[in-house]
């Protein structure tokens, strides 16, 4: 038995690391400061094939599995969490639902550009009144002749307002199920559709270079064939997307923790206090040792979940592994940024050092794609506990 | 058409590089090797030509077993196949011997329309092999090319000098060395990494090329390294403390060093 990734994955890691260091790292602080979404860099990520890692080969993808995507997200996230989440959302929320549930026509229309990074798609699930409680979706889609007419609002939608955004898949109530619950369906809404309004970008604590908007649907009319998959399948579709997404977010958290190890080791070797580098003090060195344990443990949980997914393990097993990885990696990332900031002392509070940016970026990891509480709920239920 | 890109596996230029104590050849054991960065521009040039039409790209290297990694990187970037000349007798070969061996390999590969090389290796840095190759094969050679196009059996090149840019064209087959200004080499994609595993790599010995081992290698080299001296550590510069005459003293220093 081995706990190593394959040679090909490690070689790919080296390539993404080179790319991230050369093309992203030198600009990350500026993009963050200016809240700038770097369109050209996103296109370059597309040329490297990052958006197509899990997509079918017939649409230009590599059909390479979740593990390869996690490697890419980890290495991008190690220098810039904003670009890491841009990649994660583009693949997990933009491409995957269309690739998994789309009709031949839908895939043909949307995937080639999305896979190549010439376009981005978003997934509109969260609403002002419903986040983790997605069954409470209030957005409605009503069938009118050959169209769906959509009314409602979505919140916190990543990649929804960039100049590359070609479409947003939104969940909406399309009727009632036999048991009286809301029937939820997913519908692809092309960018530029009348009545589909991208509201001004949020002013966020972190992820400043990531594009996030509220969306308003005011009688937005799309052809009936824009329904994604079967009517009423929306709930199951996004639940499946979330399991993969949680593993990918865990990989982003691993990148964050590793960045904190790197930054802390470098700083503790450079910075002196009382005549010697601060890394000679056990109070500092031991904290950094703990960061390395977090990085290792989070990485192992993350790639175990990805490997289970790639091996075609039962969805229940993937769900538990994904929840454990997401919970541990993201809570560790928040802790790691706190520790690294402390190691940096006053400089850790200055934007001059990347740890300050990572400190702001980390918190959302515990919230997006299912909060820590939701992960604990999944894990507790997996143990058979009668938790509500 | 068939394009051969010459690639070299060199010690990582960002690491501490040393020479072997015994024979003063490059020490390849204590340092990571990689594809010479300047050769990536040649591969990218070859792939760009191939992207635009029907062309096969072969990566050719000469070097010990580790040099297979240079071929692998070229294949991951998109080259179709590789040829690796490896023979213990090649250890310590100088540029003339290298050019002779590569020429023999190019003849063996056969029907080559265009040979692309980097402007220098990042270890030896002599930049002479392309011209020597052209002599052996009796082909045209255009060096230090910043832009080129291939059309109708002709390669049209722009060569940027210090004071002027020259337009040079040559009939194919030809040997063209490209500068680091010509393009932005692509990164291998995951697909490229996976595909490279299945691409053919042929390994050739000197016997395969009908070359007498006694005519290559350190013993047959036309130049001999007698001695290697480590470059002295850089000393701290002179510090001028401004006491109202800082500007004058800086100019005096620069004048003394003949900078102004």
TrEMBL record, chain A:
Keywords on record: FAD, Flavoprotein, Oxidoreductase
Query: Which positions carry the signal peptide feature in this UniProt record?
Result: none
Protein known as: Butyryl-CoA dehydrogenase
Q: Which organism is it from?
A: Haloactinopolyspora alba
Q: Where is the Acyl-CoA oxidase/dehydrogenase middle domain?
A: 122-219
Q: Which cofactor does it need?
A: FAD
Q: Does the keyword Nucleotide-binding apply?
A: no
Q: Which residues cross the membrane?
A: none
An example molecular function term from Gene Ontology annotations? acyl-CoA dehydrogenase activity
Concerning its family, UniProt says: Belongs to the acyl-CoA dehydrogenase family.
Q: What is the lineage of its organism?
A: Bacteria, Bacillati, Actinomycetota, Actinomycetes, Jiangellales
According to the entry, every stretch annotated as the Acyl-CoA dehydrogenase/oxidase N-terminal domain falls at: 6-117
Gene3D superfamilies per the UniProt record, alphabetical: Acyl-CoA dehydrogenase/oxidase, N-terminal domain (1.10.540.10), Butyryl-CoA Dehydrogenase, subunit A, domain 2 (2.40.110.10), Butyryl-CoA Dehydrogenase, subunit A, domain 3 (1.20.140.10)
Q: Which residues form the Acyl-CoA dehydrogenase/oxidase C-terminal domain?
A: 232-383
UniProtKB/TrEMBL annotation, chain B:
UniProt cross-references to Pfam families, sorted A to Z = ETF
Question: Which cofactor does the UniProt annotation name?
Answer: FAD
**Molecular function via GO:** electron transfer activity
Any single GO CC term annotated in Swiss-Prot or TrEMBL for this entry: cytosol
Q: Tell me which UniProt keywords the record has, alphabetically.
A: Electron transport, Transport
Top-level division of the source organism's lineage: Bacteria
Gene3D superfamilies, per the entry: HUPs
UniProt keyword Transport, yes or no: yes
* Keyword Ribonucleoprotein listed: no
Ranges of residues in domain Electron transfer flavoprotein alpha/beta-subunit N-terminal = 23-213
Q: Which family does it belong to?
A: Belongs to the ETF beta-subunit/FixA family.
How it assembles, according to the record, is: Heterodimer of an alpha and a beta subunit.
Q: What does the record give as the function of this protein?
A: The electron transfer flavoprotein serves as a specific electron acceptor for other dehydrogenases. It transfers the electrons to the main respiratory chain via ETF-ubiquinone oxidoreductase (ETF dehydrogenase).
Record-given protein name = Electron transfer flavoprotein subunit beta
Q: Which organism is it from?
A: Haloactinopolyspora alba
